[in-house]
Design a protein that fits this description.
Oligomer: single chain
Shape: elongated
Number of domains: 1
Order of helices and strands: H
Bound molecules: zinc ion
Distance between the termini: 54 Å
Number of strands: 0
Mean pLDDT: 86
Protein backbone atom coordinates (compact mmCIF):
# COMPACT_ATOMS: atom_id res chain seq x y z
CA UNK A 1 0.00 0.00 0.00
CA UNK A 2 1.46 3.29 -1.04
CA UNK A 3 -0.10 6.15 0.80
CA UNK A 4 0.97 9.22 -1.03
CA UNK A 5 1.82 11.76 1.57
CA UNK A 6 2.10 15.35 0.50
CA UNK A 7 4.57 17.90 1.78
CA UNK A 8 2.94 19.92 4.55
CA UNK A 9 4.72 23.14 3.65
CA UNK A 10 2.04 25.77 2.94
CA UNK A 11 1.25 25.84 -0.75
CA UNK A 12 3.53 22.94 -1.58
CA UNK A 13 1.94 20.01 -3.32
CA UNK A 14 5.03 17.95 -3.88
CA UNK A 15 5.02 14.43 -2.53
CA UNK A 16 6.80 13.92 0.76
CA UNK A 17 10.02 11.98 0.59
CA UNK A 18 9.52 8.24 1.00
CA UNK A 19 10.25 6.74 4.39
CA UNK A 20 13.70 5.44 5.09
CA UNK A 21 13.78 1.70 4.38
CA UNK A 22 15.84 1.29 7.52
CA UNK A 23 13.07 2.78 9.59
CA UNK A 24 12.63 6.05 11.34
CA UNK A 25 9.87 8.60 11.28
CA UNK A 26 8.12 9.30 8.02
CA UNK A 27 9.04 12.64 6.58
CA UNK A 28 6.30 15.20 6.22
CA UNK A 29 8.15 17.24 3.66
CA UNK A 30 9.27 16.96 0.08
CA UNK A 31 12.88 16.97 -0.96
CA UNK A 32 13.17 20.72 -1.32
CA UNK A 33 15.82 22.06 1.02
CA UNK A 34 13.74 24.93 2.29
CA UNK A 35 10.87 22.73 3.32
CA UNK A 36 11.22 21.60 6.90
CA UNK A 37 9.47 22.00 10.21
CA UNK A 38 11.05 25.35 10.95
CA UNK A 39 10.40 26.96 7.58
CA UNK A 40 6.87 25.60 7.56
CA UNK A 41 6.22 27.13 10.95
CA UNK A 42 7.63 30.47 9.85
CA UNK A 43 5.70 30.43 6.59
CA UNK A 44 2.46 29.67 8.42
CA UNK A 45 3.07 32.54 10.81
CA UNK A 46 3.88 34.82 7.92
CA UNK A 47 0.72 33.84 6.10
CA UNK A 48 -1.33 34.20 9.26
CA UNK A 49 0.01 37.65 10.06
CA UNK A 50 -0.36 38.73 6.47
CA UNK A 51 -4.00 37.72 6.49
CA UNK A 52 -4.54 39.26 9.88
CA UNK A 53 -3.06 42.66 9.15
CA UNK A 54 -5.12 42.67 6.02
CA UNK A 55 -8.38 42.21 7.88
CA UNK A 56 -7.98 43.92 11.19
CA UNK A 57 -5.97 46.98 11.96
CA UNK A 58 -5.85 47.89 15.58
CA UNK A 59 -4.06 51.15 15.18
ZN1 LIG B 1 7.54 20.93 -0.07
Amino acid sequence: MTADKTCIYPGCERPAVPPNPLGGPRASFCDLEGHNALSTHKERERLASATKSDQEEDQ
